[in-house]
Amino acid sequence: MNLIIDVGNSRAKFAVFEKNALLFDSTVAIEKVALHIKDLFNRFPRINNAIVSSVGSLGEKDFAVLSVFCQVHVLSHSSKFPFKNSYATPQTLGVDRIALATAAFYENPNANTLVLDAGTCLTYDMINDYGEYLGGAISPGLNMRYRALSEQTSKLPLLEPEELLDFIGNSTETSIHSGVLNGISLEIDGVIDQYRSRFSDLTVILTGGDSQILSKRLKNTIFAHSKFLLLGLNYLLEYNKK
């Protein structure tokens, strides 16, 4: 069994895989990571390998606890990847983007695949039908756009995303929702159109915490997959065992 740990700035996602089958996944606050690790090994004693993808930071205590139970691979640009990496600065490529590209490589082999991760940032990652990672784009995520409007102005409120009744806002709040939700949706559709003009038979996969609210607003055909990053991390762990 494999244990997957994806560490963000304030929370960590966990997943347990039996080969390529996802058996369990959860999300906990950073301060509860060590306790959750112990609980998982009590529940799944056959875990013998783990991979850590750390956008935030896994504390030394947490890492020490994990290392007691199993072999640990820390994902970095020095890890082995199944795809050809044509990124001009591979040492700066985020580990989350590496995992998403790996999931695309295995889940949609020999095909042009664009992966959109709607998280803190909105990232675009392209794997072509030759199994080559080309790169993509990084853009502000949904909540980052709401925060920017509030934090960089003196009077605009900080809002939570909600469904639009009309694209024409008739109050400050509905105008903010229209600007943010329409803006990010039109951006995504426009970027997908750019990629489709260059790559035939393009498959678009949308994942990340804001994928649900965004998927219903897009005109382009996409496949929503909330566990895509976890799948990619599991594939990378298996690949780096070799």
From TrEMBL:
The UniProt keywords, alphabetically, are: Kinase, Transferase
> Which top class of enzyme applies to this chain?
transferase
Q: Could you tell me the EC number(s) of this protein? A: 2.7.1.33
Q: What is this protein's record name?
A: Type III pantothenate kinase
